[in-house]
Design goal:
Layout: E1 3-7, E2 16-19, E3 36-37, E4 39-45, H1 50-60, E5 68-74, E6 79-85, H2 88-91, H3 94-97, E7 104-110, E8 125-129, E9 132-139, H4 145-154, H5 165-174, H6 180-188, E10 196-200, E11 205-209, E12 218-222, E13 230-234, H7 238-243, E14 246-250, E15 255-260, E16 263-268, E17 276-278, H8 279-285, E18 291-292, E19 295-296, H9 297-312, E20 318-321, H10 327-337, E21 345-347, H11 360-370, E22 371-373, H12 375-378, E23 382-387, H13 394-405, E24 410-415, E25 428-429, H14 437-440, H15 443-450, E26 454-457, H16 460-466, E27 474-476, H17 478-481
Parallel strand pairs: 17-27, 20-23, 23-24, 24-26
Antiparallel strand pairs: 1-2, 1-6, 3-25, 4-7, 4-13, 5-6, 5-7, 8-9, 9-10, 10-11, 11-15, 12-13, 12-14, 15-16, 18-19, 21-22
Helix pairs in contact: 4-5, 5-6, 9-10, 11-13
The chain binds iron/sulfur cluster.
Length: about 500
């Protein structure tokens, strides 16, 4: 059953759990072959119905996490927080939203990579600290949390959750800095890794990005001719469209923005660290209608498809995307190559979201549940399939077999990024190196395994160029190169398969 965790809401005891309508998590299927993002965040300042604005923002960010969602609001006096398991629309019914009064809100939608997959670790996290009540919502993963947590516990910190986001709040609570904003800046400069954060006290909103700018976070404005504008923040700009907010700018790497009744102020709490924004946001995670890291995702994906056609073109009759994420790159490939684009695979959008399931039999069944070939388009054709990644290889093999089984004469697979050879430690749930097929096999071995007539990946230089990087800088590419921008990595996760035998 979906459940809610309610804090600070009048008339309801703290941390009450109650039944909620919606999707039971155990009904989700178990087959998603894709890598997962950890979460999306939103914040709203200066709106009479801030909770509903946060809800709309989260609704637009649902693709970034489907396990749990939460909204905290503040009205200058109180700070209420409701979070639940399931999808945003199932948790935040009208009745629930009415329990969240105030002109300020922060929200979070989550797929967990760190901390237990449980309601307690859903966000926003609300902590009553020495600096007052603070609610925090965080996208990304900290990589030095073990050391800091141990130090904080020695200093008497008591952790309510196993989520790394709470570490930031505890650092704030234990900071010796005089003002809250100094304490936040002091705390953020002690943690390493990926974080795009929104925070709220009873009367202020804060937004910050880590010094490398791994995860996106943008600021927007809803114009109000009769009073102060509403200031909003979101992981992706597609959320602004639903809110009718104008995109104003990105929160900069290493920047801490504060919004109060007096307006917006900002400080750079960290300088001089090279930017390493996650390039996989452009390859797969972010929605194509979002502008992140200063560039439209649609433009990057279109260019990736074009570059792929230039680098590894092959004679064929039709271009077929693996829906939905392969579509934009496939359109670019088709335009560049002059080969017609066809929806030769249809995705069933009603299958529901998926959990990783070790049992291969269930995974295989799931691919057929989710995708179905359009036989009359594929029969007798030489097909170029466009996808955005091969992780273990088993799903790609299933899709290649499916297309061939529908009568395709040849099946050529093209991947719109380089081979995934190393896990991510910055908020993307990748398998360890020993389970990544490209970390352990050559491209020819992978081609044989997936039973394609040919297989090619986009080059690293090509991908960087397509994302607007002319000098190869500005992006993290660690899952394609093994070159991590931080010193802290989990050594066990980066051992190849041969080392574990
Ligand atoms: S390792 Fe890959 S997925 Fe992770 S932040 Fe870097 S580019 Fe993104």
């Amino acid at each position: 059953m979906s459940r809610l965790l309610i804090q600070g809401v009048e008339g309801i005891a703290n941390a009450t759990e109650m039944g909620a309508p919606g999707l039971a998590s155990e009904t989700w299927d178990t087959t998603d072959p894709k890598l997962r993002e950890e979460c999306g965040v939103v914040a709203v300042h200066g709106h009479p119905d801030a909770a509903r604005q946060a809800y709309l923002g989260l609704y637009a960010l649902q693709h970034r996490g489907q396990e749990s969602a939460g909204i905290a609001t503040a009205d200058g006096q109180r700070l209420a927080n409701i979070k639940g398991m399931g999808l945003v629309s199932e948790i935040f019914t009208d009745d629930v939203l009415q329990k969240l009064p105030g002109q300020m809100a922060i929200g979070h939608t989550r797929y967990s990579t760190t901390g237990d997959s449980a309601l307690l670790n859903a966000q926003p996290i609300r902590v009553d600290s020495t600096k007052g009540l603070i609610a925090i919502a965080h996208n990304g993963n900290l990589v030095n949390l073990g050391n800091i947590r141990a130090r904080l516990e020695r200093d008497g910190a008591y952790f309510q959750t196993t989520s790394d986001s709470e570490i930031i709040v505890q650092l704030i609570a234990h900071s010796k800095a005089g003002s809250l904003v100094d304490a936040i800046a002091d705390s953020l400069s002690q943690v390493d890794g990926a974080f795009s954060i929104v925070m709220m006290t009873r009367d202020r909103i804060f937004a910050a990005r880590d010094p490398r700018g791994f995860r996106p976070l943008s600021m927007g404005r809803i114009r109000n001719p009769e009073g102060p504008d509403t200031i909003v923040f979101a992981s992706e700009t597609c959320a602004f469209d639903l809110l009718r907010a104008e995109y104003e700018r990105d929160v900069l790497p290493g920047e801490l923005v504060m919004v109060t009744g007096d307006g917006v102020t900002s400080r750079q709490y960290a300088n001089g660290v090279p930017q390493s924004s996650c390039i996989f946001e452009h390859v797969y995670f972010a929605r194509p209608d979002s502008r992140i890291f200063g560039r439209w995702v649609q433009e990057s994906r279109d260019q990736m498809g074009r570059q792929l056609a230039r680098e590894s073109g092959v004679p064929a009759d039709i271009i077929v995307p693996v829906p939905d994420s392969g579509v934009t790159a496939a359109l670019g490939y088709a335009d560049e190559s002059g080969i017609p684009f066809r929806f030769g695979l249809i995705r069933n959008h009603y299958v529901g979201r998926t959990f990783i399931e070790p049992e291969q039999r269930v995974r295989d069944f799931g691919v057929r549940l989710k995708l179905n070939p359009v036989r009359n388009l594929l029969e007798g054709k030489r097909v170029i399939l466009i996808d955005d990644s091969i992780i273990r290889g088993t799903t790609s093999r299933k899709i290649v077999r499916m297309v061939r089984g529908a009568g395709a004469k040849e099946v050529h697979l093209r991947i719109s990024c380089p081979p995934t050879i190393s896990p991510c430690f910055y908020g993307v749930d990748t398998p360890s190196k020993r389970d990544l097929i490209a970390a352990n096999q050559s491209i020819e071995e992978i081609r044989r395994f997936i039973e394609a007539d040919s297989l090619a990946y986009l080059s690293l230089d090509g991908m960087l160029k397509c994302c607007g990087s002319t000098d190869g800088k500005g992006f993290c590419t660690a899952c394609y190169t093994g070159n991590y921008p931080t010193q802290w990595v989990d050594v066990d996760e980066i051992l190849p398969a041969t080392a574990s035998i």
